[in-house]
Design brief:
The complex is a heterodimer of chains A (266) and B (384). Chain A is mainly alpha-helical and 266 residues long. Chain A has helices at residues 2-33, 52-55, 63-94, 100-106, 109-112, 115-129, 135-159, 163-171, 176-205, 208-213, 220-230, 234-265. Chain A is built from twelve helices and no strands. Chain B has two domains: 10-232, P-loop containing nucleotide triphosphate hydrolases (Rossmann fold, 3-Layer(aba) Sandwich); 233-383, Beta Barrel (OB fold (Dihydrolipoamide Acetyltransferase, E2P)), CATH 2.40.50. Chain B is elongated, with a radius of gyration of 25 Å. Classes of the chains: A mainly alpha (266), B alpha+beta (384). Chains A and B meet through helix 8 and helix 9 of A and strand 6 and helix 2 of B. Chain A: Residues 67-257 form the ABC transmembrane type-1 domain.
Chain lengths: 266, 384
């Protein structure tokens, strides 16, 4: 049975490739259809190859405006959630204070709660306070739900950190600020970076909470949702593909850098 | 280093540490002279690491002062003290390579051209080839040497070592003991070494302070501590001691004559750390290797003037260079006797009646009011 043996030896590889295909197929479709020239308003059937949409990505009214709003919110939400979340994580690991246990479990709540519920209660809160819905209410909401993810990621990192490292730094003539900048922060950095990346992705594609609290502001996910009712411009695929490529490039570069470093050192 | 330079002296005066109601270190006075290799020896939890951390500045003393030379450093933060530490877990910075780990202290003090110094220091600890590796790529022994280099490059007045060899296997530990001793002789810096390993302390240090329950029990050279222990803790913690309870009978010349189980034992007065009044109790101590064993049939051949006890061999284990006997005697259930395997007497097997005898000069006397088993290492401690 040469075939069965062949299969046995490559089973893991085959399963891996199939899983990868399953994960990447939607992205492939999005990319392929970004080169389509659809008949009518819906981009669901392959017609002709065309690079028209790539040459004019902002050709659809309001789309690039909403994209810009989404990117701005994502950047600010990432910064806000990462700074606050890192500080919370350090406080929870390093200090003993009242209500520490309660905060430790409450911080998970936004992750566990159904988004719809959170969105509705946030809206109630904003309306009761008389807040003007828009950019700022979206930003506040995004920072809130990103916070849990940052805290979780950074906390794990800080907990596994040897407190002797900071003592060693102080012993080696580093003052409190130097100790934090040269030792604490670099060691916590992978956790902080993971939290920040997660925040960016979560904020950029959030729809439910944003939709409830946006007022008349339109983010990119809201634009896509809205246009899906009336017809889907090819440019949505162009933006999607571009985002995907940027993410892949990002990962590849960081992998290349780590590889080169470890090769140099080995 | 000139002998008149005392800037590396460490003087602790009345230094103590309490945590709430728990006293980790009882107020103690200690002077470590410039250029010496000093060991703080004790079981875990005896306060030796706390004492070390107070010298480093990582722990604020509850009372007393720390002086380096003539400078009072009691309230200086660690980064302002000319003292560096080699931590038990090495605490190498995982995100920096070996070169940057060693250069850390120099860079923090604003020294720009560190290359030459770091390379020289890595040569001293024989790690020149590993400069660009990360700590986790090195073996335990290599990491240990990096930790030493990282501290020494700053030319501290005092180098503190917190159980630096604890994580190494036995063979490597022996090697590193000699290595550290070599480095200390080479650089002439005061080393204060904390350890629970009595052999390590005795091999490396010029002076050893034995600590127990937050107090210094005894301080002296390794030979002095071993030959003249003053407390049961020191007698039992450093090597093994046979302690026999005895009653003071008479005094003759410089000797004290004691009664133990019907027999008489002689103890030089100078070697008795307890007040010996007639009728009072004293603990008589003798190291196992100082005792000779003779079969009961040959008892007449034992020279006069030696202390002697009768007993029966309970157990004998052959160790190679020596044989270790456990002897049961009317004055003590378990006497340990180590006999060099020079001329082995085939009759000395378990069950044999024997006479134990030794020179009175090797006997020491301790206060009988103490716990006779203090400092005896239990199985758990051995495993830890």
């Amino acid at each position: 049975m040469p075939f069965v043996n062949w299969l046995k030896r490559r089973l893991v590889v085959i399963a891996g490739l199939l899983t990868l295909a399953y994960l990447l197929l939607p992205n492939v479709i999005v990319t392929v259809f970004s080169f389509n020239r659809p008949k009518g308003r819906f981009n669901y059937q392959w017609q002709h190859f065309s690079t028209a949409a790539w040459k004019n990505p902002c050709g659809v009214a309001d789309m690039c405006g909403s994209l810009s709003i989404s990117l701005q919110i994502a950047v600010w939400a990432t910064i806000g959630a990462t700074v606050l979340g890192t500080m919370i994580a350090f406080a929870l690991v390093r200090y003993r204070f009242r209500a520490r246990g309660a905060i430790n479990s409450l911080i998970f709540l936004p992750m566990a709660m159904p988004e719809v519920v959170m969105a509705a209660s946030l809206l109630t809160l904003f309306l009761n306070m008389g807040a003007q819905l828009g950019f700022w209410t979206i930003l506040i909401a995004h920072i809130m739900f990103c916070l849990s993810f940052v805290v979780t990621a950074v906390k794990a990192r800080v907990m596994s950190m040897d407190p002797r490292l900071e003592e060693a730094a102080r012993d080696l003539y580093a003052g409190p600020v130097q100790t934090f900048l040269r030792v604490t922060l670099p060691i916590a950095a992978p956790g902080i970076a993971a939290g920040a990346l997660l925040s960016f992705a979560l904020s950029f594609d959030d729809f439910i909470i944003t939709n409830f609290n946006a007022g008349s502001t339109v983010t990119f996910p809201m634009f896509v949702w809205g246009s899906a009712q009336r017809g889907t411009p090819v440019q949505i695929n162009v933006i999607g593909t571009a985002m995907f490529l940027i993410a892949v490039l990002f990962v590849l570069t960081s992998m290349l850098i780590t590889n080169r470093r470890s090769n140099q050192r080995a | 280093m000139t002998t008149t330079d005392n800037s590396g002296d460490v003087r602790l005066s009345g230094i103590g540490k309490t945590y709430g109601s728990f006293t980790a270190v009882h107020p103690l006075d200690l002077t470590v002279p410039q250029g010496s290799f000093f060991a703080l020896l004790g079981a875990s939890g005896c306060g030796k690491t706390t004492t070390l951390r107070m010298i480093a500045g990582l722990e604020e003393p509850s009372s007393g002062t720390v002086h380096l030379g003539d400078q009072d450093v009691t309230h200086l933060p660690p980064y302002k003290r000319p003292v560096n530490t080699v931590f038990q877990s090495y605490a190498l910075f995982p995100h920096l390579d070996i070169f940057e780990n060693v250069a850390f202290g120099l860079r923090r003090r604003g020294i720009k051209s560190v290359k030459k110094q770091v390379e020289d220091m890595l040569e001293l600890v024989q790690l020149g080839e590993q400069a660009r590796k990360k700590p986790h790529q090195l073996s335990g022994g290599q990491q240990q040497r990096v930790a030493v280099a990282r501290a020494l490059i700053n030319h501290p007045k005092v180098l503190l070592l917190d159980e630096p060899l604890g994580a190494l296997d036995l063979k490597l530990r022996r090697q590193m003991q000699l290595e550290l001793k070599r480095i200390q002789t080479e650089v002439g810096i005061t080393f204060i070494h904390v350890t629970h390993d009595q052999e390590e302390a005795m091999t490396m240090a010029d002076t050893v302070a034995v600590m127990n329950a937050g107090r210094v029990e005894q301080l002296g050279s390794p030979t002095d501590l071993y030959e003249n222990p003053q407390t049961t803790f020191v007698a039992n913690f450093l090597g093994t001691s046979n302690l026999i309870e005895a009653e003071v009978d008479t005094r003759s010349g410089g000797d004290i004559v004691l009664k133990a189980g019907g027999g008489k034992l002689v103890l030089p007065e100078a070697r008795c750390s307890a007040p010996a009044t007639a009728g009072g109790k004293v603990l008589v101590g003798i190291r196992p290797e100082k005792i000779s064993l003779t079969h009961a049939d040959d008892a007449g051949a034992i020279p006069e003037g030696r202390n002697r006890l009768t007993g029966r061999i309970v157990d004998a284990s052959f160790i190679g260079v020596s044989t270790q006997y456990v002897v049961e005697s009317p004055v003590c259930d378990e006497l340990a006797v180590y006999v060099q395997n020079v001329e082995r007497d085939g009759r000395l097997v378990p069950g044999a009646d024997v006479v134990l005898h030794w020179s009175p000069a090797h006997t020491f006397g301790l206060d009988a009011a103490q716990d006779i088993d203090a400092g005896v290492e239990t199985v758990e401690e051995e495993a830890a």
